């Protein structure tokens, strides 16, 4: 795992945020549900040739937005290039950013301990960009019961799960409201860029 603190400048953060807003106009945030129908307590959208979704049929990558039924917008060039150069930092020079999942957390949002295993390719690094309020990130090991430690993800931080850590359980315990004023309405955005295939 690689945690690059305050990696993005204020203006880079603003630029990425602006892209997220544009993406949100065409592919609005939606609340996915679990198989049993209970909603996640955060919202999401995607860009890229496929996007990660979850509903009564389980979770998967799909070529269309589940609400608008339209294809996802392409990954903005700045995000694609940033992901490629970050992947190269952990040794993957052939990284192909195919999707970017955008999660939006409000004051009461959480993301339970999980392993990212929907991808066909489970070797490529996953690159995460945090914007807005601090997130309390939990990182464990290969087994759900492995002990976890807390890492604070601040606006502009990058986290890369690669190598052994690619399959480590992780989650968001909560966000710390009011720790950033990047997002006018508060909250936290997290972008995860992946090569799925
Ligand atoms: C988040 N991140 O930071 C949630 N997954 O809001 C993730 O679930 C995650 O940060 C895979 C790789 C890096 C991550
Ligand atoms: Fe994850």
Q: Could you please describe the fold and organization of this structure?
A:
By secondary structure, the protein is of the alpha+beta class. The protein is 15% helix and 34% strand. It contains 2 helices and 12 strands, in the order E-H-E-E-E-H-E-E-E-E-E-E-E-E. It is globular and about 35 Å long. The protein binds N-[(3-hydroxypyridin-2-yl)carbonyl]glycine and fe (iii) ion (FE). Fe (iii) ion is lined by residues 114, 116, 170. It comes from Dolichospermum flos-aquae UHCC 0037. This is Alpha-ketoglutarate-dependent dioxygenase AlkB.
Layout of strands and helices, then pairs:
Layout: E1 2-4, H1 10-26, E2 43-48, E3 51-55, E4 58-62, H2 77-89, E5 99-105, E6 111-114, E7 126-132, E8 134-139, E9 149-153, E10 158-161, E11 170-176, E12 188-194
Antiparallel strand pairs: 1-10, 2-5, 3-4, 5-12, 6-11, 7-10, 7-12, 8-9, 8-11
Bound molecules: N-[(3-hydroxypyridin-2-yl)carbonyl]glycine (MD6) and fe (iii) ion (FE).
């Amino acid at each position: 795992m690689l945690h690059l603190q305050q990696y993005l400048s204020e203006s880079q953060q603003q630029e990425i945020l602006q892209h997220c807003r544009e993406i949100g106009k065409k592919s609005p945030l939606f609340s996915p549900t679990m198989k049993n129908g209970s909603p996640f307590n955060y919202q999401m959208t995607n860009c890229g040739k496929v996007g990660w979704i979850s509903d009564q049929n389980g979770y998967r990558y799909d070529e269309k937005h589940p609400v608008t039924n339209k294809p996802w917008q392409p990954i903005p060039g700045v995000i694609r290039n940033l992901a490629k150069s970050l992947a190269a930092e952990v040794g993957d020079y052939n990284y192909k950013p195919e999707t970017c999942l955008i999660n939006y957390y409000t004051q009461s949002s959480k993301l339970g301990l999980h392993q990212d295993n929907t991808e066909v390719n489970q070797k490529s690094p996953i690159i995460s960009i945090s914007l807005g309020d601090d997130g309390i990130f939990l990182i464990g090991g290969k087994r759900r019961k492995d002990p976890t430690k807390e890492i604070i993800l601040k606006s502009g931080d990058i986290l890369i799960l690669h190598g052994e850590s690619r399959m480590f359980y992780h989650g968001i315990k909560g966000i710390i409201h009011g720790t950033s004023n990047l997002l006018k309405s508060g909250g936290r955005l997290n972008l995860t860029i992946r090569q799925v295939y």
